[in-house]
Amino acid sequence: MSPEPILPSVKSYPKSTEIKWARMGYWLISLLIFNFALLISACGLDVEDPTPPSPPVWVQKSLHEEWPEHGIDAHESGRIYFEWEPNPEDNISAYLIYRAEYFEVTDSMGDYELLEHIQTESLVDMEYIDTHSAIRAKYYYRLQAVDRADNLSAFSDSLMYSLLPQLYLGEMTPNGTSDELNPDRYLTWRYIHSIEMEDYCLTILSAENELIVRKILIPRSYLGVVETWRIPENIIFEPNQIYKWRIDASANYVDQFETAGSESQWATFFYTVD
């Protein structure tokens, strides 16, 4: 009978040691997962995020007599201006601006088309000037937000606005230099187009953009008429200081807010004392 083979001895460990090694393995795996997540974050990679951002919200439009102005409005450049609130999410990468045109002749609405894709990194404020807007065209706008995972929000509410022709200011040089305010303290302006406006608003600011006058006026006529407004004596101007003024036209009010308008360019004047 042959002898049994001699097997190498296997060193046995206490059960507590085995538990210790198991725990060390668990923590090692956890550490690797944590470091991997940090690496992804540091590299700017996005972990899959199926949740879309909330729809953008428009800035509430100001009343015609309010200053400073906010919300959708005409711009002194002769274009349409609007602004919206920043989304509450911190991972918004872009906003999409859409525009549709309403056609009065056929009483029909065109399709919404993408007007602009704006990266948030290029935005200082949430605002936009539609440089392709035309006089008397009726435009509707809406927005979408895009996050870094390319999720699209639902559409915002729609806003409508239409441009009126700009008013032209008289007795003020158009090239940015200033005229002395006439002794009778009259400001004058005129229209060269038929303007379907309901009222206009005169604004005077100091050189530091401090509001001096913001006044609603009713037009005498709508075509080729020179309008004037005499600045009351109780409005005090500092001698030899530059002031600027502008006329806004408004029409088609809905719930106290105009949906059509224009803003003249700024003109300037200075006041002297005899």
Describe this structure in words.
The chain is mostly beta strands and 274 residues long. It has three domains: 17-45; 73-163, Immunoglobulin-like; 168-270, Immunoglobulin-like (Sandwich). Helix content is 10%, strand content 36%. The protein has one helix spanning 15-42; strands at residues 73-74, 80-83, 92-103, 108-109, 113-119, 127-130, 138-147, 159-163, 168-170, 179-180, 186-190, 199-206, 211-217, 226-230, 242-254, 257-263, 267-270. The strands form three sheets. Strands 3, 4, 5, 7, 8, 10, 12, 13, 15, 16 and 17 form an eleven-stranded mixed beta sheet that branches. The chain has a three-stranded antiparallel beta sheet with strand order 1-2-6, with no helix packed on it. The protein has a three-stranded antiparallel beta sheet with strand order 9-11-14, with no helix packed on it. β15 and β16 form a beta hairpin. It is globular and about 85 Å long.
